[in-house]
Amino acid sequence: MQERVVYTRRISKVVKGGRRLRFNALVVVGDGQGQVGAGLGKALVIPDAVRKGNAIGRRNMVNIPLKGSTIPHQITVKKGATIIVLKPAREGTGIIAAGAMRAMLELGGVRDVVGKSLGSRNPINIVYATIDALRQLKDPEVEVARRVNRPSRTA
Fold this sequence. Notes:
By secondary structure, the chain is α+β, with helices and mostly antiparallel strands. The chain contains four helices and eight strands. The strands form two sheets. It has a four-stranded antiparallel beta sheet with strand order 1-2-3-4. Strands 5-6-8-7 form a four-stranded mixed beta sheet. Helix 2 (99-108) runs parallel beside helix 3 (123-136).
């Protein structure tokens, strides 16, 4: 299981005695074989935030239905003000995506794909939108079998 810290930021809360500083860490975890997850850890210091993000990411794993080295079909997902588009690509194309989306696809084991983010480029929203898109992907063979084996409603 591999992990990659995609984004960290310092956040502050103003209280009577001054500012309370904390940190957020967005961590992506994956096995490179079709499973990927992401977690946003929050703590007083960065290493603790990364550890928490790693644990949350391992709990929220998603299975990616791979078709060879790419995804089975195109998908568009909107999360907040971020819109992402994932398209399957031919063998040898590589991962054409940047930043947070690239980290997710690499750790998920997708080797050939074209990704584009539109609207807001906030890494947190991009990661959550990518997770949502990968969760919505359908394996064509499984989907055909599910539709064929559905009992008829005429009775």
